[in-house]
Design goal:
Order of helices and strands of chain B: HHEHHEEEEEEHEEEHHEHEHHHHH
Structural class of chain A: alpha/beta
Largest sheet of chain A: 6 strands, mixed
CATH architecture of chain A: 3-Layer(aba) Sandwich
Strand content of chain B: 5-15%
Oligomer: heterodimer
Shape of chain B: elongated
Distance between the termini of chain A: 19 Å
CATH class of chain A: Alpha Beta
Strand content of chain A: 25-35%
Distance between the termini of chain B: 27 Å
Number of domains of chain B: 2
Radius of gyration of chain B: 32 Å
Number of strands of chain B: 12
Number of helices of chain A: 8
Number of domains of chain A: 1
Largest sheet of chain B: 8 strands, mixed
Structural class of chain B: alpha+beta
Chain lengths: 227, 427
């Protein structure tokens, strides 16, 4: 299988000179297409920093990130923007929905950014909402949804561009165990049925256990999963 | 993101905080209202004045008077036989021209058709019904043109006595309508120096519209002027009879402004002040312009304050929407689009504020026009107090939007430069 995300001797250092702090030290990872990977570790272990780098939201101090065979250091800012818009889906612990907009408006945001016309994006938005069984709530205000529903909206938003990778940062962190279970099911069925690569940052062992592979981090280094 | 989506998003973002947006728009409204109304009034008055000048038409006529310097000081001055007294009271009398002045003026090159204007003061005018009214007359200079309501202009030299009647006098003199007055005869009463009242009759050839230039006076043609003068100075010595308030003269209308100025300067050196009708109206124009500039300046101060309001509003908006901006940037929205999203919002504030301000100013202007034309401008038909050319209003809206855009660049830049990770972490 092809590698979708590759990382070679990645370092991330915050600050300079005396106050320099190495958040990531010599990270090497290779994630294949269709894999489900959990990045686990305590807070401060560098797992979030790693995810931000993999998602091209941040730049490494040195080392190389290779997405679909392309070196990120060779990509322009615009190319990175397009890559994030078209290839990546994001699921956040705090949802980040626009409370006053409708559910549908929230879901179609990536398509709006991509410059896709209103008719097409609304049709695709409804399709994505149907995929997470929220089609009937398309015109509700995002604020009026329950936590579980909100996270399903976020997943619909992450899905709408038919991404090749979904980055999920503590996707069940704000949910009770029953609704959390449901979100997990949706995510893993996407991984299985649509062959979307899943990269989940979590410290929930149960969730991590359902992933095909676990990358365990400690003090900015990978201690288990891949060297 | 498409431009249409940016505009619609910016619009809906603008109305997210209605009170704040409303107050910002109100601030812009005040500035735009002041400026639009000022420009409207200025444009109305200027248009009217221009119309007046073009009505007179005799753009190539110079009105030449004595240059008088009034001595306002209390310093005692020695009497000198050759020098005219220049105390304030004597100034009016000494401002009159005599035959030697006229002769001197006539030597001026590039001028022709000189006519020395004497002041004629008939005692009354009366029409078909015999009622007598006070009257002021002015000689009609050949080449002048007036907007007539009806009839035609008086003829020049060697004709019968003819007049142009201002429309306000028509009914008082006993005519049923403007058209009715044409061809009818009126009578002027004028006293000789000895106090004997004599009459001269004249035919009405036209009825003229009231205007700043006619000033309610009756225009008499040269033959009538001559007759009236003959009675007014009957038996008077030449020094008294040959006094003139000014000399009119024509210059070639092909002359450039600079060439006309040369003529004026040359006359000024001889002690005479020469003005065209345009110059005389120009003084009014200058005053109007000065008032306009002051009011526009105030309007600009209001706009400056309003633009600080825009900066403030947008900074708050950027602050509130930090996470949203972070999310959009994470999802691949480019910096320039984020910048545009907020700049467009700023321009929208400017657009709505200035549009509403301009519309309100136009509304107020219309009401003021109606009130004015029924009251203090009643005697000046054709004078719209305010006038709002579409181009001016569009320019005002455009400039306000530009100011709003510039004010918005600061907050917009802050939004565009946000780091998505920091923004998403922001509490």
């Amino acid at each position: 299988m092809n590698s979708v995300v590759g990382v070679k001797s990645l370092n991330k250092i915050y600050g300079k000179n005396d106050s320099a702090f190495a958040a990531l030290k010599d990270i090497n990872i290779d994630i294949k297409h269709g894999e489900s990977v959990a990045i686990v570790g305590k807070s401060g272990s560098g797992k979030s920093t790693l995810m931000h780098l993999l998602a091209l939201l941040d730049s490494p101090t040195d080392g190389e990130i290779i997405i679909n065979g392309k070196k990120s250091s060779k990509l322009s800012r615009r190319e990175k923007d397009i890559l994030r818009n078209k290839q990546f889906g994001f699921v956040f612990q705090q949802f980040f929905l626009n409370a006053n907009n409708t559910v549908l408006d929230n879901v179609i945001l990536p398509l709006k950014i991509a410059g896709i016309g209103r008719r097409e994006r609304n049709a695709r938005g409804l399709q994505a909402l149907n995929d997470v069984e929220l089609g009937s709530k398309a015109n509700n205000k995002a604020n009026n949804l329950s936590g579980g529903e909100k996270q399903r909206v976020v997943i619909a938003r992450a899905l709408i561009n038919n991404p090749s990778i979904i980055f999920a940062d503590e996707p069940t962190g704000n949910l009770d165990s029953v609704t959390g279970e449901k979100i997990e099911e949706i995510l893993f069925s996407l991984n299985k049925n649509k062959n979307i690569t899943l990269i989940i940052v979590t410290h929930d062992h149960e969730l991590a256990g359902r992933c095909g592979r676990q990358i365990r981090m400690k003090d900015g280094m990978i201690v288990e999963g891949e060297k | 993101m498409k431009l249409s989506d940016i505009i619609s998003s910016a619009t809906s973002n603008m109305f997210r905080s209605k009170v704040r947006t409303g107050l910002t728009i109100l601030a812009i409204f005040i500035g735009a209202f002041t400026i639009t109304l000022t420009v409207g009034i200025s444009s109305g008055v200027t248009t009217y004045l221009d119309k007046q000048v073009s009505n007179v038409g005799a753009k190539n006529v110079l009105i030449i008077r004595r240059k008088v310097e009034v001595n306002m000081s209390n310093v005692l001055k020695k009497y000198e036989p050759d020098q005219k007294s220049n105390s304030a009271q004597a100034a009016l009398l000494s401002a009159m021209l005599n035959d030697s002045d006229v002769a001197k003026i006539k030597t001026q090159s590039d001028l022709s058709n000189f006519y020395a204007v004497s002041a004629v003061s008939p005692s009354y005018i009366s029409g078909t019904n015999g009622d007598k009214y006070q009257v002021a007359t002015q000689p009609f200079i050949d080449g002048s043109q007036f907007e007539l309501i009806t009839g035609k202009l008086v003829s020049g030299k060697d004709a019968q006595s003819e007049i142009l009647l201002p429309s306000v006098m028509v009914s008082g003199l006993g005519f049923s309508s403007n058209d009715d007055a044409i061809g009818k005869t009126v009578e002027f009463g004028i006293k000789t120096p000895a106090g004997v009242m004599k009459t001269v009759s004249a035919v009405i050839t036209g009825v003229q519209q009231e205007s700043l230039i006619t000033q309610g006076g009756v225009f008499v043609n040269i033959p009538l002027q001559t007759k009236l003068l003959a009675i007014q100075y009957e038996g008077a010595p030449v020094e008294i009879a040959h006094r003139y308030i000014g000399v009119t003269a024509e210059f070639d209308s092909a002359l450039s402004k600079d060439e006309v100025k040369t003529i004026k300067n040359s006359l000024a050196d001889k002690g005479y002040l020469a003005n065209t009708v345009e110059d005389q109206i120009g003084i009014i124009k200058q005053i109007i312009d000065a008032i306009t500039y002051v009011l526009i300046f105030f309007g600009c101060i209001a706009l400056l304050a309003a633009s600080i309001g825009i900066v403030n509003t947008l900074f708050m908006s950027v602050q509130e929407r930090t996470k949203e901006i972070g999310l959009m940037k994470a999802m691949g929205m480019s910096r320039i689009k984020v910048f545009l999203l907020f700049s467009v919002e700023a321009m929208m504030l400017g657009f709505w504020g200035s549009l509403l301000g301009a519309l309100a100013a136009i509304g107020v202007g219309r009401i003021a026009n109606n009130i004015a034309s029924d009251t203090f401008l009643k005697d000046l038909p054709g004078f719209a107090l305010t006038d709002f050319p579409v181009l001016y209003v569009a320019a005002i809206i455009f400039v306000v939007m530009l100011i709003a855009f510039l004010a918005g660049t600061l907050p917009s830049r802050r939004a565009a430069n946000q780091d998505p990770i920091e923004a998403l972490r922001y509490e």
